[in-house]
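Hi R.,

Here's the chain you asked about this morning:
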Amino acid sequence: MNTSKGSNLNRVFLARLAGTAVFDPNGDQLGKVRDAVATLRTNNQPPRILGFIVEVPPRKRIFVPITRVTSIDNGHVIITGLLNMRRFEPRTNEISVLSEMLDRSVNLVESNEKVTVEDVAMELSKTGDWFIERVHIMKRGAGFRRRGASSTVTWSEISGFTITETNQGVSNLLGTLANLRAADLASVLHDLTIKRRVEVARALDDERLADVLEEMDEVSRVELLAELEGERAADVLEEMDPDDAADLLREIGQERAQALLALMEPEEAEDVQRLMHYEDYSAGGMMTTEPIVLTADSTVAEALSRVRLSEVAPGLASQVFVCRQPIETPTGRLIGVVHIQRLLREPPATLLGGIVDSDIAPLTVESTLNEVSSYLASYNLLAVPIVDANERLLGAVTVDDVLDHLLPENWRHEESMRKESESR
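And the predicted structure, written out as tokens:
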């Protein structure tokens, strides 16, 4: 059975994996599976499988992330990538499935009857993660019978394994999460209950929460935005990139979107509303309305001072768009672009009009995703200018905007789960 990379089967009973040989892609045996590692979650949610404990010569047990497993079939496991030979050490809230779950006494939720766990099955979810969704149990036998009836139940039908969410204050929790990147914090929030998720969101400042929302999957961010008060939600939307804010407002329904737009600052709302009129997979739907724009009589020093600002995304910092007044989008006529490499080679007092590249043809808001991606690849650019019929600059589409639309919808969650399993 292959794993998430192309398998039709999506359930594996883990007790049957004990002693299974582990091979690399070349067919060389690396060791044997001795156990699986899962992370317990709150409120009776199914544990997520992080990886396998593999015994390699000479009798050393190491951790292999589930993301490295490419196949489980015919009595063998195939993995790819380099092995971390550090000896396996369990972490808090992790459980060794075979050694800590099997033969354990748990209760059936409906009847409170005690049963014994004989095996557990991990199943592949739509997000590409593996969760323990099934438990094979044995009831206690009556009289002199040593074994009772056995059956397979869902994880939600038993109790006795999961942890309960602690009453850790939000301030303490925020202290723990303070140094996480936005994408990693989004992953942590995904596993919290909606109540605790909202508590954390309300405690974050507007800019930090905006960054986190941009990294969350569609369902989670819509759910979270719905829990924020109108004024707070509007403030957070103002801190988001206009294209991301437009995407989010498209997802929450027209009535709620219009209500939030009315609470936003008029200039911010205008940019977002303009983007909402475009098709999601068009250049207009993907572009940001806040590229770096200067006039031809601006200097290299001025351009570099804008490029080096920490809030400017790398894709937008790769070039400066030179336009006639006004320089707020929609601008005056687009003259051309000056790339960051050229800026670094020129004296600070040099005028942009003398070094502008006017040979790059812009695209329009109707340009398709395929046209935009082909354009970026053909010219080796990180951003493409988008203009109207009068050649006024409306915005720019960056390579990360394109990747966001090319990758599967749940790619952010899959990537954060991969990082979590490989960081141990």
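The first strand starts at residue 11 and ends at 13.

Let me know if you need anything else.
M.
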